[in-house]
Write a structure and sequence with these properties.
about 850 residues; six-stranded mixed barrel; about 60% helix; about 15% strand; cell membrane; Lipoprotein-release_system; transmembrane helix
Length: about 850
Amino acid sequence: MMTHSSSYLSSIKRLRLCLQLFASHYRHAPLQASAILLGIMLAVTLLIGVYATNENAKQSYGNVSELMSQQARLSISHRTEDSIDESVYFALANAGFNTIASIEGIATDEQGRLWRVNSSDVVAAITSSMQLQQSGTSSSITATHIPLAELLAGKPKVLMSTSQRERMSKVTNNTDRIILNGMPVEFVAIDDSWGLGSAILADISLAQPMLNMQGKLSYIAVFDSPSADTNISDANESETDAQLIARLTHTLTQAGIVPTKLNFTTQTSEGESLTALTASFHLNLDAMSMLAFVVGLFIAYNGVRYSLMKRQKLLVQIMQQGLDRRTIMLALSIEIICLVFIGCVLGFIVGLQLSQWLQPMVAMTLEQLYGAKLLPGNWQWQWFAQALVLTLSAAFAACIPMLINLINTPLAQGAQKQPQSRQLSIIHWRQFIIAALLLLVCTIAFAFTEQYRHSLILLGVLSVAIPLLLPQCLHWAVNLLSPFMPKGLWHYVIAETKEIIAPLALAMMAMLLALCANIAMNTLVGSFEITLKKWLDARLHADLYIRPNPNQIDTLTLLLKQDPKVEAIYEQWTVDSHLNRAETPQTQVPIHLVSRDHLSLTETTVFKTTADDFWTTFTAGESLMISEPLSIKYQLDIGDKVQLSQLDQHIMTIGGIYYDYGNPQGEAIITQSLWQQSQLPAKPISLAVSYQGDITPLQNSISQQLNLSSAYMYSQQRIKTEAINMFNKTFSITVVLNSLTLLVAAIGLFSACIMLTQARQAPLARLYALGVSRNQLRMMVLVQMLFIVFLTCFLALPTGALLGYLLIHKVTLQAFGWSIAMVWDWAAYAQVVIIAVVSCLLAVCLPLYWQTRKPLISSLQQEAL
């Protein structure tokens, strides 16, 4: 027993001694520890930043709640129109249902900017929230600084979160007032804990005249009825959604309201639909964060490898002194765990801050694309645990083979450092073989993938395979160039370039990965922008597009017909519907059912493919056309038989598939005659007008005579401008992440160059002693680095274009249903190459200048270390 205890204490002492030795090493070489921590911190920062943003977004979908209130049980909206009569709200409120009336609309300021305005009965919302807080199921919030009396009096004040007010300060020049739809309103900033996010909230008494919706509501939120009676409260909790809808329907029927015209949407279905609709967007963000994570791990691994290589002689010496290999391996493992833990803590803190910066961009994109509102989120310790486990797993998977190889070094070789060029050449050749096999597998697999998730996984495998090609390709390039170099210093430069490929390989692989991602994303964004502009030019044929309230359609049509400058009026009808295959009627696909006049359809529809007799069968009402996203997502094709819920399950044939880049949800179009024959709304939901001359007088006339805000009238140029702005905002988050990834790679290159120049002090000093001037040394090292960087860029251009091609023709097509014509953006490619070269110059010049300024004897002494 005593022997076992003393052996245990001896092992602990040896382990502590080894750890103290490693700590002393890092005290004398802080650059090595800094490089490792920097790589881990950057990797975790981008991973946590995007992960926290995505998780907060998904949590918002699952907790869709009314602004400043609790989570609604369900919402009531009109089945075919944008608004419902407020009599529905009064009927339910008088019957004792816990409801809140809401209005959503667009307002314009004096500069023509659009603002989304939300409104509700603010007092009822706050009361509901306070009741939820008293029940102990809500965080503590108070009504401090909310001017309830002024809101009740109908004074023009709107509420917004403090963070949103700060973001708007640049637009409003730090004033607390703005004119919306001709009405001056004042901002009131409240605490972010109320969950307003990026919304502008007005009381319903103010919003109805501002948005010209007197007597109308957008929807009604229905909550569980609060009660002090425990039995009643338990009954509310046990009541199913179907039973609640049945009670609502009965109440409305007794009040003389036809409930079949209303749509009842439960909270669960709304959250699930948002999650499904935005899944591809979040998956793309996850892929970008994982890419940045891999680039950061490259940097960390490069630092670990350099640190171990510098300690190779030290490790052999302490093993010769009698320290066992198991203790050294355990000490090195503890060292890696400590470094990973510290790096993860730093990265987690910075990542949460990055999430706070990214979330407004994501919120704006999701709100404009999908109508999803993001609520303020809170960080969770599980995110740190997941990042720590992932980083530790990746670190040990990368370092264990190197540690084992280092520990198994024969003790007889401890007297001198052994050349490792042959071993590294074998490793680089194996990497090349593995990369070639992965490329072959991906090439075959891409031909069979139909789901964007599978394609994204293959794209990730391809992104890992491409950097593995780099070291061997660099060796081949240097070997090809070597015979053409003159004897002397330049021949030495090329010969030494072979030696620095190995220590620079990981940094250059990270740079190659970032360059490929940047080129691919630039290709996607540039191609999509050109495709979108061409589609808008074909799709928009009228001069003015108007979307008034349904009760103003007849008056507006009469007004337009009386104007002699109006050349033509085009109409569009839209309702929410469901589509299913004729052979599987139980599968209901939510879509927008649309119809336009025949002239609009023939002039503006850009077809992907059509049946031979399409227009004949379409005009006869026997076939319909569907959007490309709907076709791809549900694998529908020409000739398939489908049914529409709004047409009493009438079986129709898909006769045409058209391009659509403006609607994230599927869309189907039927002919105008079939629409009018069916039990569908007779009034169009929007009008388009062809007009002679300037349309501004027409817009002013409509605004004055119908009291219609300019926010509901869009000129052709305004639609194009806003579409491109939305497009830029949609891709802004991915462009930012892509730029951050490139920045991480540049930092990795900088740290690698510092370590490399530090390791090359003695060789450079020997050359200086032999008569090579300092300027020649600097030029020599600079040429070597630029040569490697240019070769890396040369490989990045075709491989990045390949990734862009797959992003366009596989991932984007399958995820969003958008066909995009690939366009080569040479200016963007040149910009990426310039960024890489500038990063190289900064990474080389500063550390090289520092090292070549050192005294000769100091540099020569590095030979003995």
